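S.,

As promised, the nicotinamide-adenine-dinucleotide run. Input:
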Amino acid sequence: MSELFNLEGRVALITGAGQGIGREIALVLAAHGANVAINDYSPTRAEEAAAAVRPQGREVIVVPGDVTDYRGVHSMVAEVEARLGRLDILVNNAGNAGALKALGDWKPFWETEPDEWHHWLGVNLDGVLNCCRAALPGMIERRFGRLILVSSDAGRVGEPHFAVYSAAKAGAMGLMRALAKAGGRHGITANSIALGGVDTPGAQSILTDDAAIRRMLSHYVIRRVGRPSDAAAMVLLLASDAGEWITGQTYPVNGGYSFAQ
Ligand SMILES: NC(=O)c1ccc[n+]([C@@H]2O[C@H](COP(=O)([O-])OP(=O)(O)OC[C@H]3O[C@@H](n4cnc5c(N)ncnc54)[C@H](O)[C@@H]3O)[C@@H](O)[C@H]2O)c1
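Predicted complex:
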């Protein structure tokens, strides 16, 4: 294993890691030596993911809970620090890929109401605020931290079908840039990855529809649907010593759907 990507001695908390992209991130970080805490609001899913990660031979704990619960998130971070000794890498992954469901029966933003917005803003923005807020004091004290946001090209370039999801993801990316500036002198980096369509349980509503897949892939330079491992590879780079001089950035991981300027 290249030393640059060696995470031995590091502790990572991955939110929404019970399935899909988060579960793969947990697997990849553990395979590179990190001890991991697996969060999901479904305890059953979190336990199943932990069982899949444990054969990597690292310490794996399950910390179920809803990232939109401010106090609950503080207790969760305290539990990770108590049981695994520290928290170095926070992967803000919990989010609503279920926005893709809207492709089937979407309505324009100007026909939506605040009641419908809270759903997207809660997990995709408040959840990230809560987790970063809880993790930062310990990271600052230890003078090391990696904040990583699993975001979407919807937030980077705007997606008319999912305006509120786009707004929430863009807001969270803005937070990461602000925290990159605030955290740099404390040894903390903060970055986002902006994903295109990735094959996960949450994205099944579109990925089982051949016409929708064809439509989506017609915009991709690399004509295949994303895999969770595509996202996990970029997270590994940002989490490891290889990413030490990278901060405040948003990296598209999207088959070339839209390029970064
Ligand atoms: N799959 C895609 O095409 C795609 C594209 C762009 C961005 N993303 C982003 O990637 C991330 C992961 O997506 P995925 O496709 O793996 O989703 P998924 O729906 O398959 O899995 C998400 C997991 O997060 C958990 N979760 C949801 N809300 C939570 C909450 N409030 N607290 C704790 N856990 C919660 C769910 O229980 C689930 O296990 C999300 O942030 C999503 O917005 C996904």
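The first helix runs from residue 20 to 31. The radius of gyration is 17 Å.

- D.
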